[in-house]
Amino acid sequence: MPLTSVKKNGKRRAGAPDTPAIQSLDRGLQILEAVGKSPEPVSLGQLAAMLGIDRSSAFRLAKTLKRRGFLTTPSAGRDYVLGSSVWRLSRQYDWSKMLARVAHEPLKTLAAQTHETAHLAVREGRKALFIDHVTTSHVISISGQTGELVPLYCTSHGKALLIDFEEQDLVDLLGPKPLKVYTKNTIQSIRSLAAECTSLREKGFATDESEYLEGVRCLAAPIRDRDGQVIASIGISAPAARFPREREREFAGLVVAVAAEIGELVGSLED
After folding, report:
1. CATH top-level class for 90-269?
2. Which residues pair with 230 in a beta bridge?
């Protein structure tokens, strides 16, 4: 199997990493690319030749990738193929794209109904990831971009995604350390966040009272699959002056209704 090799003369090629940690990451990514492109399992010797390193160094890299599930050796063999972690990542990417397609029209409807920017988000580790958004014609609008990551604990989307979490679940996800403070309204402890999640479950939606960005109010609701599991969130963001508390009930009704609509659309795809 032809694999691209790296020069062994000790000179760093143009654009190559210049620190050991980054070099190891670069080599690990090269391994994944090579194994992914190969129609056959790839041997340790082939990996070492491709990277221009000795077999023991190649083995340590492959062992780390195998431990994390990115490589595996089928049937107790010694050669490598891509592992389950790669497939999980690819499914998550495909799932997010599918969800964005299904939810785009309801998202546009929500933006038109509220005249405010509407976002669709999924959980990505300890963050909420915006996978789609629709802006409005306001001169001043809140336009978080698709692909942007925001904290879970101090944004309406994040709290909607965490709405079913109990205190221990939150500790397991976010860790026991104090939470980073962004504004004077930011939640600062897991205990406070757990108490808010309990309250949010009763309301069915989450708010952000200028907890992440000063002068910005947001409202989001969880999107659930047919089993009741939270799979995403949808919501709106606006300058606080344009989103007084008196409008919370009105906006919440619209957001919750659109979240339910998207949940039904996703459920229909599972039939």
Report:
1. alpha beta
2. 224
Contacts with 146 (C-beta within 8 Å, 6 or more apart), sequence order: 130, 131, 132, 133
Chain Cα centroid distance, residue 70: 18
Contact 140/239 with Cβ under 8 angstroms? yes
Q: Is residue 209 helix, strand or coil?
A: strand
Cα distance between residue 205 and residue 230, in whole Å: 12
Q: Does domain 20-82 have CATH number 3.40.1010.10?
A: no
User: What is the torsion angle, in degrees rounded to the nearest 10, for the CA atoms of residue 13, residue 16, residue 17 and residue 22?
Assistant: -120
Residue 102 CB coordination number (10 Å): 16
Using CB atoms within 10 Å of the CB of residue 32, give its burial: 0 to 12 exposed, 13 to 18 middle, 19+ buried.
Answer: middle
171 has pLDDT over 90: yes
Domain residue ranges of the chain, discontinuous segments joined by +: 20-82, 90-269
- How many H-runs (helices) and E-runs (strands) does the chain carry? 8, 8
Longest Cα–Cα distance of the chain, Å, equals 70
248: which 2 tokens?
A: 């919370």
Cα 239 to Cα 245: distance, rounded to the nearest angstrom? 12
Q: Do the beta carbons of residue 202 and residue 76 sit within 8 Å? A: no
Residues in the chain: 271
How far apart, in Å, do the first and last CA atoms of the chain sit?
42
> In which band, very low, low, confident or very high, does the pLDDT at 2 lie, cut at 50, 70 and 90?
very low
User: Between residues 12 and 28, which one has the greater pLDDT?
Assistant: 28
**φ, ψ (nearest 5 deg) of residue 207:** -125, 160
